[in-house]
Amino acid sequence: MLKKSTYLAAAIALVTPIVSGISPVKAQPTTGTVQSLTSGDRACYVEIADDSGAIFTRFADFEICEQDLVGQRVEFTYETASIIAESCQGNPECSESEQVMLITQAEVISEPMPNPAPSAMAPMQSLADGNYRYWNGTASSAIVSNQTLLAQGGVLFLFRKQGNAITGTFSYIDGQSICLQGQVNGNTVTGTALQRGDAGADPISVISSGETFTSFGPSGLLQVRRGRELTSETIRYNSAILNLGSLNRINAGSVLPPGGC
Fold first, then answer.
1. Domains in the chain, ordered, with CATH?
2. pLDDT tens by residue, 32-51
């Protein structure tokens, strides 16, 4: 099951600022969509998604955290500045400091582009080889933050496409998940599925062992059958059909899809 304890550990790895990963020598994105603002001990931490979906976390003036910027496309101005050193571990009386590139201004330059309607999106089969995420929620931008996913919930399909071959994880945010492997035709994936139980979570059980398709979870998007228990915590379905026609494609995120099921 995709409990918060497991989903958060993977999908929200970039929501919590990792201060040691912020380096003044890295390229500073001058424009991007703000994913989150967090006021820390040393500075305001700004999580930025650039136009390609890459995620950056950068230092900013504390005043930046007070602005209404989350979800907005913003232009950033940087200046060299001194902030309390990481070695101080948040002690306000510590005299050590370090030089960093600090965001001193953040100006909204445009409203985010809305997601295209599902009917207007190219079919999944026509996508170039790569990693993708599809979500059944709606947002004001194709770049969706982990905070938005947790707040709105729903269904998420994280997958890798190579030709018509698809390998991915179909999951309910804060719910159950299953690995799917198969072939795509249009927006439909057919193949097999493997479900693994999480340690300490409710036990899993076969939902369809015969020829009748049964919905995996309440969405009705993934149908499985011919299931059998491989171990007490592993179930394999030899027939699965996933219909993605009603989902929206969002940014690929920071977590890689599975290499296999």
1. 13-110 (2.40.50), 118-250 (no CATH)
2. 888 888 888 888 989 888 76
